[in-house]
Amino acid sequence: MRLKLRTKTALLITSLVLALVGATGWWQYRSLSSEYVDLMREQQQALTESAAADLDYKLGVHLAALARAARELGVRGFEDPQAQQRFLADEDLRAMFDNAALAKLDGAIIAITPPASRPPNVADRDYFRRVRDEGQPAISAPLLTKGTGQPAVVMAVPVEGPDGRLVGVLGAALNLQRANVLGDLSRATPGRGGYYVVVTRGQSPQVVMHPDAKLLLKPADATAATFNGGTENDLATRAPVRTADWELRLIVPAHIAYAPLEQARRNLLLQLLWLGLGCALLVWLGTAWAMRPLEALSNTIRTLRHSPDSQVRLDVVANDERGDLAREFGALMADLREQRLEMAAVTDASPVGLFRCDNDGRATYVNDEYLAIHGLERKDAAEGWLTLVRDEIREKVRQEWIRLVNSPAPFNATRRLHRKDGTQVLVALRSRPVLAEGRILGHVGTVTDITERTRSEQAFRTLTAVFDLTTDYVIQNDAAGRLIYMNPAARRRTGIALDAPIETLKVSDLNPPQTLERFRSEAVPTAVATGVWVGESLVWDLERREFPVSHMVIAHRDKQGKVEYFSGLMRDISEAKGAERALRESEHRLRMVTDHLPALISYLDKDLRFRFVNKAYQDWFGVESEQLLGRSLQEFYGDEAWAQMEPYLRAALAGRQVTYERRLVTPGGHRDVQATLVPERDEQGGVIGLYTLDNDITAHHEAEEALQESEARLRTVADALPMSVAYIDADERYRFNNLAYEREFGLSRDQIEGHTVQELLGEPAYQTLKPHIRAALAGEVVTFQSEDNQSDSYNCYEAQYIPQPAANAETIIGFHAVITDITRQKLEEKRLVNLAQIDPLTGLANRAGFELRLGEAMDRSRSANALMALMYLDIDGFKQINDRFGHQAGDELLRGFSTRLTQGLRSSDVRARLGGDEFTVIMEGLPNADIAVSAAAKLIMSMHMPFAIEQRTINVTASIGLAFYQGGAATAAALVKQADEMLYQAKRSGRNNVQAAALPIDGERS
């Protein structure tokens, strides 16, 4: 029920009157009750101190008795079991304490009464550590014993041995639930219902003794008037128990202690009640009359609250407090209307959509931007945004939205909306709950159209990806020249790792001095002034070598227009520069070539005007080249020549390549020329000009008459040549052959000409020559040799196929075959080669032959990954044999040694004498290294047989070194070196033995 103002005023005045009267009476009551309470507290405090002193004395007696028992036990022997039993049987201790125990310094109990099957360890007890560490008696805080789990207080004293050293701890417990010095005190009842409570002192006091056993060991509030079961008004006094650092409290229940005072208070309250009722009735009647204008103002305020724009009448002319209140209220409402209009204007002008929704998720307010973002009419503002969600998920989204607006947590999300006009918009939604006294009234939030921003971010990511993938070099630096970005292509070209930091690098670290100077003087000022500079420059690569780039510098400004950083886009134009240089050189060479050709060369545009002529025009006609450029062909040659040339020119302009002959009249006389017209086409295939080539064929015509005479002379010469000569056309048919060719095949000229090569030579021989014939007809000059090895003869021929191009040089119309008998030369070459690679003394391969065959063997081993061995051997003490018996005997010994070397090895093994008594053997295709080692050992044994030389016998031995190879990068020199090292190792090992390398030689060893 809501009280009206007049009722409240009546109650207030009545309350003030009653308060004044009650305060006076209450002050009198408090004075009397205070004196009464002080008197009772003084008497109870004296009783408390007396009881505390008695308890303190009794605890001291118990502690002294325990200390005396400990001294006696220490004298008897702490470790003596009999002494322990006598101690446990002590009647005095058993009468004073509920149980007792002896503990070692590690906390282990060695004796206890009453006995326990598994005595506990008390090393973690605070009282035990105090006695052990300080050597002084201690009384514990209340605790639960480990053996029985009963609440108790433990007294502990140190036990010292005869030498005064601490040997253990004696402890005894007082069970807080049994009859003892504490239990008796808990059952005492001082006064007419009081009781004693003992608690520990300190920050966290605990109950040591209480009449209610359930409260033992419970926490006690050190600030309350009473503890553990009492009330806040109980009369409580306290006194310290110093022996145990406890506090004794005497508590008398309030209903007993303050019973007289309570009766006096009830009488006073009854009197005040009757006085208040009378005052309230009189005051209510008076205020009801005075408050009637305020009720009218309240009704006006209520009307404006529900309808702020309503027109109401206020009594603003009254010259009293009510008029002042009406005037202030009117001004306040005017200010509120103005603020509401300002706020509406601000929210409607906001570039962000604003909304407020209730707990049902319906929008109770939206601004114009909210409607524009969603594409809604204001009449659809409440739940119109749901129509922009797909039908199949609309209800699910609505339920989720209701859950969110009833949640106290803020909400942030991104949504894609499909507007009614068919467009899509991506919005960022942020909302916060509206809380009133902890109750959620709905949410307020913003909606921001982030479609363009998202597209911009995506475009920026795409641009960054393009920069990362482009082969151009992209570098960004701040206004001070420090690098802030380099794309991968720029990092690779300058040798900077992809993950290396670049903040310490500057533009000056990547560009030569002349480029930096150009940046300062031209590029940067232009970019700052116009936004971009484009040009060419030189930059450094990984090895600080200069290379040219096409360079673009872009200046980026912040919102204030200040240059924030620069972007540099560079493209390597080394190849383009090289191409330009090559083009200029090519043009120069072309001009040099065309100017030195004896033919007329020109280029005519589509109107048949000269655009290019070579120097031959000046030589033939005595006219400078520059004077011809721009003149028409008809103007230069005249109408008579033009009439002959025009049909061919028109045909060429139609797209045909034309070749014709004509006669020119020049200052030097008549010239017969062969003119060739070649059309030039654009990208669409249209003719845009003509290339002309006029060859002087005057001499050619003159030579044609002599050609027949020349052909007769040529046949005569060809028939006189010792080699076979023939001409074969593109169909592989003989068209010419000389007399030697006829003698070679035993056929007449008529039997050869017109026949194909296949018909003349037969199928097997033709298949052998077919590749060479195809190559010659393809325009390649072919030279090859063919050998004929028969049992009784050897023949070798060298054939040369020379292609014959057509007159227009576009096709090959045949080839000339020149076959020479080189049998004698080949036989002589073989003889010389054998002489160069054979040792004349032994008939074995010499050093040159050895090196050739070793290289071939290593190539085969490398290709097949096959094992091969190189054996290096010599005759032990050969120099002494030479010195003793002479060089002739030494040569005989070397020949005999070579014979045994040949007989003791495979026929495929290559044997060689490098010089003196040094021999080598190349062994290929070994399945394993043991084969070579075994062959070497057999050679050592075969050399033990005496050599018969010049009617005397000579005994010699040999030393052998073995090296192996099975592919890899090792060279022949490295393999020979390793075999030689093995030979010298055999020498150092006493000679007459074999030493082999453990592993095949590899690239690192070489």
The number of helical runs is 30
Radius of gyration, in angstroms, nearest whole number: 64 Å
Q: What is the mean predicted local confidence, pLDDT? A: 83
The parts where pLDDT drops under 50 for at least 5 residues are 222-229
Total DSSP E strands = 37
Can you walk through the features of this model?
44% of the residues lie in helices and 26% in strands. The protein is an alpha+beta fold and 1006 residues long. Strand 18 and strand 19 (546-557) form a beta hairpin. Helix 1 runs antiparallel to helix 7 and helix 27 (878-885) crosses helix 28. The protein is flat. The model is unreliable at 222-229 (pLDDT under 50).
Key features of this structure:
1006 residues, alpha+beta, six-stranded antiparallel β-sheet, five-stranded antiparallel β-sheet, 37 strands, 44% helix, flat
Write the layout of secondary structure elements.
Elements: H1 5-76, H2 81-88, H3 91-96, E1 99-103, E2 109-113, H4 126-134, E3 138-139, E4 143-144, E5 151-160, E6 166-175, H5 181-186, E7 195-200, E8 207-209, E9 235-241, E10 246-252, H6 254-257, H7 259-290, H8 292-306, H9 321-349, E11 353-357, E12 363-366, H10 368-374, H11 394-405, E13 411-418, E14 424-436, E15 439-449, H12 451-469, E16 473-478, E17 483-486, H13 488-494, H14 513-530, E18 532-540, E19 546-557, E20 563-572, H15 574-596, E21 600-605, E22 610-613, H16 616-621, H17 625-628, H18 633-637, H19 639-653, E23 658-666, E24 669-681, E25 687-696, H20 698-720, E26 724-729, E27 734-737, H21 739-745, H22 749-752, H23 757-761, H24 763-777, E28 782-789, E29 794-805, E30 812-821, H25 823-837, H26 847-864, E31 867-875, H27 878-885, H28 887-903, E32 910-915, E33 918-926, H29 929-942, E34 947-949, E35 952-954, E36 958-965, H30 972-988, E37 994-996
Parallel strand pairs: 36-37
Antiparallel strand pairs: 1-2, 1-6, 3-5, 4-5, 5-6, 7-8, 7-10, 9-10, 11-12, 11-15, 13-14, 14-15, 16-17, 16-20, 18-19, 19-20, 21-22, 21-25, 23-24, 24-25, 26-27, 26-30, 28-29, 29-30, 31-33, 31-36, 32-33, 34-35
Helix pairs in contact: 1-7, 27-28
